[in-house]
Design a protein that fits this description.
With 739 residues, the chain is mainly α. It has four domains: 1-30, no CATH class; 33-277, no CATH class; 313-495, no CATH class; 500-735, no CATH class. Helices cover 53% and strands 2% of the residues. A two-stranded antiparallel ribbon has the order 1-2. Strands 3-4 form a two-stranded antiparallel ribbon. A hairpin with a 7-residue loop joins β3 (229-231) and β4. α10 (198-210) runs antiparallel to α19, α12 (245-253) crosses α16 and α12 packs across α19 (368-377). The chain binds a DNA duplex (12 and 13 nucleotides) through loops. This is CRC domain-containing protein.
DNA sequence: GAGTTTGAAACT
DNA sequence: CAGTTTCAAACTC
């Protein structure tokens, strides 16, 4: 590690002596990514190292499963150690970890070479034992990349190592894996998803249900972390991966990555990392930017078929994988005539995701089992035709996704309306199949939910004259562009969820965090915003000032009461904080589950910086109500977990996120970003039905701003207000003075 | 499953 | 930008 002593002329000898500096110097010889290959480099870069980071920070669509684990586990378990790690520069839990990893790696790399994996870094932070084992596993075979990711994941938990390996080696074999979750590490860190082996999932699900407390937090997050599995229901043929499933799947699917690809990933990563690392201070920012950027790229490459085509040059590797592995699967699924052509449901990363759905997923549906299928197969996922949502959206989306998942499931469960003509599997991402039934729009207008969600219509759709398929890619894209030209936000998530949402929801069902609002606001007149006609209600969010509804009775939050609600929330928050588990939730069973999960969070309340959202999305409408009720959603949690990662993301994302929030939400959000560190500490506890019980808000709680967990995270990153909770969240490593 | 209601999207 | 029409989802029966 330390070749501390290189005498260097210069006042900054100390600095130069630093391993990092040395490392950098050593790195210099490494050829920087070629411009021509920039695209590749980017992807590669992403895939391996950056991806994790990016995923952590920004990846909107991808709730990097890893991160969740990392965050959670790290926070819970390892942070303490990490904090000590000298290397660790970065602070925050998940994110910080990622950062650290990078640096560490770099440092290590000096001695070792570029091949060094994050493992090392993780080692620093992580427990030696687990790490040691971890480091061994994936690295050699997978290349640094896989190992790194795996490591990261593993860092959270030593167990993961196996998982990672397994996942890498056997995509399908996941089932055999006992581990709570598998980590399918993808080449792209972003893509990296934690897939819970079916068995594992089942178990995990059971565990989550049963063991909740002990494991719940982990398991849930992990499971959920899997990305966002959007598991609408066990039955549902489609499970949607909010995250970049395919990329993952592809990578996995090709457990045997072409060496080239692997190497490429490795190299670029290192380089990238190096670049990023150089200014430690800048690291976060750059990474954010990069990660975001990269993600956007990746998505395109992975998910946007067409886009991919356009950008193929850039994302060759990803494309390859995608094409090879993913496509086939998708096709398998898609069998229908007109739709046969349609791209198989491929998981689409958060692009164009609609965050609308916030409902909680019923336990039943939560069953992770399907999840595996989803992950492994990703077959069902509708292919996203693509657009990559802006990074800022992504972050939001990720949250939303989780919520969405919940919502959907919730709908199914709560509404239980057998009828539900369509089950929209909305990840929130919009990646999921919407099962549209368009007749005249040709599925090329926003009327079409599939189109609006940025996904091709798939078999489940009953549309007529559908042009929203892979064959008509050009048409779809052109149409999309036209629509976007008119309304840039046309494909943006209708409902924006900020971290606040979770917390707020927890406080009171009626209250909807300002952060989570319908973008444009509804214009309901007869539905009183109590039916799904209302997009706000459908999205599980309260009506906001932007709404023009009449007679608003939105159970998630009435328009007029918004301000008050925030105030009230603060008060209530106090109470709630006292009783995290108390729930208003009607569904006890669900609550039970959550509570179990919450229990862990409870700790978090004090310490856990990591935002554990077990939350059901938004306050759910009364159980009786058809509306999406939050049923226990493991996925939701998982997604949440993903959210937990969000902090990391948020860190990186911050700038963009801020902008986005400002754009969409308004100042408030930005404020939150600026916001109090307190939010960081906030743990989101979700009551199954309802709304999440507001996690204890350590510091503050009250201010709506503070409430937003993500916001907190974001804020936290820059400044680490130290809270007991923060400590957890924050990496002890974070010791580094924030740049 | 058919028909109605509803509100967003699209159009003028 | 406002008003109207079109559209498909949500809902009811």
């Amino acid at each position: 590690m330390d070749t501390p002593d290189r005498p260097r002329a210069g006042a900054a000898a100390g600095f130069e002596d630093s391993p990092v500096f040395n490392f950098i110097n050593n790195l210099s010889p490494i050829p920087p990514p070629k411009p021509s290959d920039s695209a590749h480099n980017v992807q590669l870069f992403k895939s391996s190292d950056l991806a994790p980071v990016s995923s952590i920070f920004a990846s909107p669509h991808v709730p990097p499963t890893k991160e969740p684990k990392l965050l959670i586990r790290d926070d819970s378990v390892q942070f303490a150690q990490e904090s000590h790690s000298p290397n660790s520069v970065r602070t925050r839990t998940g994110t910080s970890s990622s950062f650290r990893l990078i640096r560490c790696r770099n440092i290590v790399s000096e001695t070792r070479n570029i091949t060094c994996n994050l493992n090392e870094a993780s080692i620093d932070s992580l427990d030696d034992a687990s790490h040691s084992s971890e480091s061994k596993l994936p690295q050699p075979t997978q290349n640094g990349v896989g190992s790194e990711e795996a490591d990261k994941n593993q860092h959270a938990d030593g167990k993961d190592v196996h998982e990672n390996q397994l996942s890498e080696q056997n995509d399908d074999e996941v089932a055999t894996y006992d581990g709570g979750y598998m980590i399918t590490h993808e080449l792209s860190g972003d893509m990296l998803t934690l897939a819970v082996p079916i068995e594992a999932e089942t178990q995990s699900a059971n565990d989550t249900l049963n063991t909740d407390n002990a494991y719940s937090c982990k398991s849930l997050p992990n499971d959920n972390s899997n990305g966002y599995y959007i598991q609408n229901s066990a039955h549902e043929p489609h499970h949607y991966w909010a995250g970049p499933v395919e990329g993952v799947a592809v990578d996995k699917s090709t457990p045997q990555m072409p060496p080239d690809a692997l190497q490429l990933h490795l190299m670029p990563n290192d380089q990238a990392c190096n670049k990023l690392n150089e200014p430690s201070d800048y690291m976060p920012i750059k990474q954010n930017a990069l990660s975001q950027h990269l993600r956007g790229t990746r998505r395109r490459s992975l998910f946007n078929e067409k886009a991919g085509a356009t950008s193929k040059g850039v994302n060759k590797s990803s494309d390859r994988h995608f094409a090879s592995s993913t496509t086939p699967k998708c096709k398998i699924n898609s069998s229908d005539n007109s739709k046969s052509l349609r791209t198989p449901p491929c998981a689409l990363p958060g692009i164009g995701l609609h965050l609308n759905a916030l409902a909680a997923i019923p336990k039943e549906k939560m069953v992770p089992q399907d999840t595996q299928l989803i992950i492994s197969q990703c077959s069902n996922l509708p292919c996203h035709f693509g657009f990559s949502p802006p990074p800022y959206e992504q972050s939001i989306i990720s949250d939303d996704i989780a919520q969405t998942t919940n919502i959907v499931s919730a709908e199914d469960a709560s509404q239980g309306s057998p009828k539900k003509k369509r089950h929209k599997f909305d990840n929130g991402d919009g990646t999921s199949c919407k099962k549209c039934s368009c007749k005249k729009s040709k599925c090329l207008k926003l009327y079409c939910e599939c189109f609006a969600a940025g996904v091709y219509c798939t078999e489940p759709c009953s549309c007529q004259g559908c042009l929203n398929n892979h064959d008509n890619m050009d048409t779809v894209l052109s149409t999309r562009q036209q629509i976007e030209s008119r309304n840039p936000l046309a494909f943006a998530p209708k409902v924006i969820h900020t971290s606040e949402t979770d917390q707020e929801l927890g406080d009171y069902p009626n209250k909807t965090p300002a952060s989570a609002r319908h973008k444009r606001g509804c214009n309901c007149k007869k539905s009183s915003c109590t039916k799904k006609y209302c997009e706000c209600f459908q999205g599980g969010v309260g009506c906001s000032v932007s709404c023009r509804c009449e007679g608003c009775k939105n159970t998630f939050g009435q328009r007029e009461g918004v301000v008050l609600s925030s105030v009230e929330e603060s008060k209530l928050a106090l109470e709630e904080n006292a009783c995290v588990k108390e729930e208003k939730c009607e569904n006890d069973t669900q609550l039970v589950i959550y509570q179990a999960t919450d229990s862990a969070p409870a700790e978090n309340v004090l310490t856990a910086p990591v935002v554990v959202d077990c939350r059901p999305l938004a306050a759910l409408p009364p159980a009786s109500s058809k509306k999406p009720r939050s049923s226990t959603k493991l996925t939701g949690h998982s997604s949440r977990l993903g959210n937990s990662q969000a902090p990391l993301k948020s860190d990186i994302m911050l700038p963009s996120f801020k902008n986005y929030t400002e754009m969409v939400l308004g100042d408030k959000t930005s404020d939150t970003l600026k916001g109090s560190s307190s939010t960081q500490t906030s743990v989101k506890v979700v009551s199954p039905n309802k709304k999440r019980v507001s996690p204890p808000r350590i510091g503050t709680g009250l201010s709506p701003i503070c409430k937003s967990g993500r916001k907190l995270i974001l804020k936290s990153i820059p400044s680490f207000p130290s809270l007991g909770g923060d400590v957890n969240n924050e990496d002890p490593k974070s010791k580094l003075p924030a740049p």
